Amino acid sequence: MKALIIGGGGFVGRYLAEHLIQDCGWETILTKLPQEHVSVAGCQAYNLDILDRDAVQALLVLQRPDVIFHLAAQSSVAYSWKNPQLTADINIHGCLNVLDAVRGVEGYQPHILLIGSGEEYGALPKGTSIVRETTPVYPGNPYAITKLTQNLFGSLYAKAYGMHVVMVRAFNHVGPGQTPQFVVADFCKQAAEIAAGVREPVMRVGNLSAARDFTDVRDVVRAYGLLIQYGKSGETYNVGSGKAIVIEELLKRIIAQSGAEITIEVDPEKLRPVEIPVIQADISKLQADTGWMPEIPLEQTIGETLAYWKSRIGQ
After folding, report:
1. Can you tell me the distance from the alpha carbon of 108 to that of 262, in angstroms, rounded to the nearest whole number?
2. Phi, psi dihedral angles at 70 (to 5 degrees)
3. Is the Cα torsion angle 232, 114, 98, 93 positive or negative in sign?
4. pLDDT of residue 169
5. pLDDT score at 275
6. How buried is residue 204: exposed, middle or buried, by Cβ count under 10 Å (0-12/13-18/19+)?
7. What is the DSSP string of 74-125?
8. Separation between Cα atoms, residue 288 and residue 271, nearest integer Å
9. Are 171 and 118 in contact (CB under 8 A)?
10. Are 146 and 92 in contact (CB under 8 A)?
11. 231 neighbors 212 (Cβ within 8 angstroms)
């Protein structure tokens, strides 16, 4: 089996490449941006701009992968408010370039996994916090709108052109190596710096009252590997832990593991224009079709993410 990871130079892509090579035994290729320095043992890497459809198709003709994981995205909600145009270009046009490039290769029918987001559900009806794939979607930020559009195109291409396309709505995934533009990495980085005495003992935070569904990135990529094989074409699958935790409780756990005395301050720059109070994934469809279950507890993820940031302090 030959796998192509588009956008493999990012946080999730590297974990996915390692999983496919080490656990699945698949020949794995990834694409990255020219400035990304990616090294995954046993993995080929190509520079690729997904906004260049001809370049995408040329790579497909060269490698003809059996499966394609489309991870490439502008994935920050906060940044999407600042630059919705770029977010749309990458997340919508980039996805269409991949789908059309596959269509343009005669006699070629790979399995494709499009990675969307739990953010697509947006503002939920009153009294609703657990979301199924059939829950109505009301995306509340530019990033979520682009991911919903990607999902709709994936479904359309599966039905109209007979392509094997499976869509994912991934909820918050976390772990060592994630950039601090995401909440767990941000808190762990700040806590590690405070514990090391290189930062004042003040944690700057955004909204702590929201509740989110967090899953270790290593569990997430296992789900992706199963869905590319057993997911039903044209269908959407939630990927999450199936449990929500209030951000304030998450912060308390991080501070407790850091061992530092920390004061909390709200940073207006970290507040979003629109915030969804509670969202939690119903993962019964994923479990029914693949047998997947999350295995790594949140406490382990927090500890290893703190250790990652502590190891980087002073480098």
Report:
1. 56
2. -95, 95
3. positive
4. 98
5. 57
6. middle
7. ---HHHHHH-HHHHHIIIIIHHHHHHHHHHTSTT---EEEEEEEGGGGBSPP
8. 37
9. yes
10. yes
11. no
Tell me the three state secondary structure of residue 257: helix
Q: How far is CA 199 from CA 86, 192, 204, 228, 258, in A?
A: 33, 9, 11, 43, 14
Q: Answer whether 0.90 is exceeded by the pTM.
A: yes
CA distances to 31, 251, 281 from 35, rounded to whole Å, are 12, 33, 35
What are the start-end ranges of the H helices in the chain? Answer: 11-18, 53-63, 77-82, 84-88, 94-103, 142-161, 183-195, 217-230, 247-258, 284-290, 298-312
Q: For 83-94, what is the mean pLDDT?
A: 97
Decide: 12 and 71 in contact? Cβ < 8 Å: yes
N- to C-terminal Cα separation, the chain: 39
Report how many helices (DSSP H) and strands (DSSP E) the chain contains, helices first: 11, 15
Rounded Cα gap, residues 297 and 315, in angstroms: 29
